[in-house]
Amino acid sequence: MTVIATAGHVDHGKSSLIQALTGIDPDRLAEEKRRGMTIDLGFAHTDTLSFVDVPGHIDFLNTMVAGVHGVDIALLVIDSVEGWKPQTVEHLDILMLMQVQHIVVALTKADATTADAIDALTSHTQSEFAVRGLTLRHLIVTSAHTGAGLDELRTVLHALTKEVSATSTTSPPRLFVDRVFTIAGAGTVVTGTLGGAPIHEGDELVVARTQESTKVRGIQQHGASSGIALPRTRCALNITHLSTEDIHRGDVLVQENSWHNTEVFDASVEIAFSVHAKASTTSPLRNGGGYTLHIGTARRAATIRFLNNGTTTMRVRFTGSLPLIPGDRFLLRRTGDDITVAGGSILDVKPIARTTRANPTGNEASILKHHGWLPVADATQLVGAPVSPIVEGWVAAPETVQATTEALLALLHESTEVDIAQLQAWERLLIATLSNVTITRGIARVGSDNPLLSHPYVQTFLSSGISTPDTKTLDRDIIRRLIHAGVLYEHDNIAFHSDTLHGLRPALQKLWQQHPQGFSMSHLREELGITRKHAVPLATCLDKVALTRRVGDVRLPGSSW
Ligand SMILES: Nc1nc2c(ncn2[C@@H]2O[C@H](COP(=O)(O)OP(=O)(O)OP(=O)(O)O)[C@@H](O)[C@H]2O)c(=O)[nH]1
Ligand SMILES: [Mg+2]
Predict the structure, then answer these.
(1) Is the domain of 133 the same as that of 244?
(2) Which domain holds residue 298?
(3) Which residue, 31, 106, 512, 520, is the most exposed by fewest CB within 10 angstroms?
(4) Which residues, 6+ apart, have CB-to-CB distance to 212 below 8 Å?
(5) Are residues 479 and 411 in the same domain?
(6) How far is the CA of 341 from the centre of ligand 2 (A)?
(7) 3-state percent breakdown (helix, strand, coil) of the chain, nearest 5
(8) 53: Cβ–Cβ under 8 A, 6 or more apart, which residues?
(9) Whose CA is nearest to atom 13 of ligand 1?
């Protein structure tokens, strides 16, 4: 069940509304009862809805930010008597910067005001949303005292919960801890809104900050035991070996070696709406320190530096490391005046280029290009999703593969014999895949002891590129044996050398940049300037070497791409 977080100014009726909806009082601390105010995160649920209730008071804004982490739906509560107040605005800024998908507005305390006042507040709220470019899909007038509007609110929240529950995830599990406590007889329990893949009972996890390991002894979701915690839901994990001294809010539980821990990242920047509205011409951000970074439930002192002397991307350095991936959202609050100034999306969790040169985009191709050859496990962590190897255990961007291949071919032609022990691990694997190269006793050579591979046809096909001779005019037996040896690929009496096919990588890359949904036969003909007679066999042979795969009438990257 996806999580719904409350938001809104102090005393506007968030906790009362949650209690009226669920029958559970989210304010569980004695101090909260005494002061009539939410101080810490509260939790409540029904069979179909799961809530995190946040404090509205400005002093507890950090707690509010931790509460909205990882949620897809927010319930923005506005008191119909008081209307919009400073934390209505700041909380909405935060929801926007965190890109919470759905924002439902509840006007509360309808019993304490007039219909005219509610109409006026409704139109004011509509215009506040419109000016921010937000669509106000749901505004519901409620009263926790009379029960008005509660059924309608439940129906809307239930429908949205169902709508977002299908979100898939490609990253390994990550739990930003928001509460730690002990239960007599059970030991330490941590709670949070789970990100990434599910966690199972018995899983071994580590605290990212200390690398201390622990085991999940039990899982509870919404008060009931469960063998598994599902992504984007609330979960409570009963963990071994760690006391409440060892793990705190802001700590992160992950599987060992499954995330890249970093103290720096490059990111896109978005200025908070209300800050931007006040001073749209000057950026509220300055290179240097004085910021608090919020990611998940973690909060760290940070310094920033704009990239490329621009204002749209920046490098953020912070104290202590966190397990992060591209796409993670974050907030920056200015420590001097304690204002939420900006937020953004992480683009690179291991920036290498200098800030004056860095140009991150966040997509897989550019991350890989930036880092050269990488072990698949490292690349998966930097990209934040599984990547396929180019050669066993290693991955690189197409341009890098092309450059390495060219460098290896040049080396082979220069020195005729290459001692593969002198090569990098990925070069050793790549050189072995080049056709017409044999490796004997650790020495790579062009040509081979196999007379078939020195047959003049091999050179003919190599030098003719994609305008190859019709195989009908050639000795069928030799062609058949060259196909069998993986040197040639053939379709409809047209054959291509495998180096020629692999040499088309840059052209294919260009085609997919122009046609991300797949390129057609005529796109291929146009790009390479070839006839239909050659284009169909060529595309079919590209499918055979798995550089492409055919889907309907178009080609998409294949498993060897
Ligand atoms: N008349 C009326 N009063 C309400 C209603 N709901 C809440 N209140 C009152 O508003 C006050 C604040 O309610 P809470 O639910 O604690 O507000 P909150 O938004 O959770 O406050 P914080 O968590 O401290 O930000 C309490 O005195 C409630 O009794 C309502 O529907 N009608
Ligand atoms: Mg409250």
Answers:
(1) no
(2) 261-383
(3) 31
(4) 206, 241, 242, 246
(5) no
(6) 24
(7) 35, 30, 35
(8) 5, 6, 14, 15, 18, 26, 27, 38, 41, 42, 43, 44, 67
(9) 13
Say yes or no to pLDDT of 436 above 80: no
Domain count, the chain: 5
Domain final position from 112, 135, 164: 164
Same domain flag for 15 and 135 = yes
Please list the residues that pair with 488 across neighbouring strands: 497
Instruction: Name the nearest CA neighbour of 290 among 346, 238, 259, 336.
Output: 336
Q: Is residue 98 part of a domain?
A: yes
| Nearby residues of 358 by Cβ (< 8 Å), 6 or more positions away | 266, 307, 308, 313, 315, 348, 351
Four-point Cα dihedral 268, 272, 273, 275, nearest 10? -130
3-class SS of residue 445 = strand
Q: Which of 6, 16, 85, 107 to mutate to test the pocket of ligand 1 (most atoms within 8 A of CB)?
A: 16
Examine the domain organization and report whether 285 and 342 are in the same domain.
Answer: yes
* Contact between 43 and 18 (Cβ < 8 Å): no
**pLDDT tens, position by position, 155-166:** 999 999 998 865
**pLDDT of amino acid 352:** 92
- Which residue's alpha carbon is at the smallest distance from atom 4 of ligand 1? 109
Q: What is the spatial distance between Cα 148 and Cα 142, in angstroms, rounded to a whole number? A: 5
Q: Are 34 and 160 within one domain? A: yes
Q: What is the pTM of this model?
A: 0.79
Q: What is the CATH number of the domain that holds 489?
A: 1.10.10.10
Q: Which of 9, 10, 11, 63 to mutate to test the pocket of ligand 1 (most atoms within 8 A of CB)?
A: 11
How does pLDDT run across 141-182, given as a tens digit for each residue? 999 999 999 999 999 999 999 988 655 677 899 999 999 999
Q: What tokens does 496 get?
A: 């291509």
* 33 and 102 co-located in one domain: yes
Q: Final residue of a domain: which of 164, 185, 208?
A: 164
The rounded Å distance from CA 98 to ligand 1 centre is 26
The full length of the chain comes to 561
Task: Name the helix (H) or strand (E) containing 32.
Answer: helix 30-35
Determine whether the shortest distance from the Cβ of 111 to ligand 1 is under 6 A: yes
Please report, for the domain that includes residue 211, its CATH number. 2.40.30.10
Distance CA 50, CA 47 (A): 8
In-domain check, residue 10: yes
27: left (phi over 0), alpha (psi -120 to 50) or beta: beta
